[in-house]
Amino acid sequence: MGGQYRITGDKYPRLRRPKRRRRLVLAVVASTTALGLVGWGTLQLIDVFTGGDDQAAAAGPKADCSARVSPSPTAGKAGGKTSGKPESYPAPGKITVNVLNATPRSGLAKDTAEELKKRGFRIGNVGNATEEYDKKVKGTALLLGAKAAEDTALPVLNTQLADARLKTDGRKKATEVDLVIGTGFKALSKQKDADAALAELTRPKPTPTPTKTC
Asked: Per the record, which residues fall in region Disordered (predicted)?
């Protein structure tokens, strides 16, 4: 080829990469591997001390939702109970009251009936109690009515006097009740107190309903 050196034979010299570059590549790979191992170990330590899985579960969207109970009014025709079952309380004008005197004091049934009429109740029979109750009612009064009147007419009449005893019998008509005046009776409750008791009875009561805050 015209030069001083010539290549003869069928073998050629092998070209090798410089040793310095190969050492540099190995150093970079080793450094990267070491950094990865250090980072992985750090994450494991953080999980151990902070409970990473538990926190991740608690941070989910469902864990942030908390249910709270808020009252909402429910009522029947005239009121409701806290059980959520509405009860219908008839107005005094739809209740017929038989006023019966079970005491030795005369005129007590007539005076009580007149006062109840002023307060809007309908008046039925007025007179002495039957032998079953005559001089046998020791308390303020005994209120008698049908089973269906237990949660309707009887509580409405009961707002007009204090410490009366309620009792049901076999009659069918729920809007007709008896007021049997006992020996402990002095007078009906004052008008303002009776009105307040009736308003409280028929006021809608709150029923708790769960609501989510998220």
From this structure: 55-92
CB within 8 A of 113, min separation 6: which ones?
A: 97, 99, 123, 126
What digits encode the pLDDT tens for the residues 16-57? 555 566 666 666 666 676 666 666 666 665 565 565 555 444
Query: Hunting for tokens 């250090």 — which residue is that?
Result: 38
Q: Whole-angstrom Cα distance, residue 201 to residue 7?
A: 121
Q: Mention every residue, 6+ apart, whose C-beta is less than 8 A from residue 210.
A: 67, 68, 69, 70
- 193 pLDDT more than 60: yes
Q: Does residue 58 surpass a pLDDT of 80?
A: no
Q: Tell me how far apart the alpha carbons of residues 47 and 72 are, in angstroms, rounded to a whole number.
A: 45
Q: How many CB atoms lie within 10 A of CB 88?
A: 13
How far, in Å, are 5, 114, 204 from residue 1 at the CA level? 9, 147, 116
Prediction pTM value:
0.59
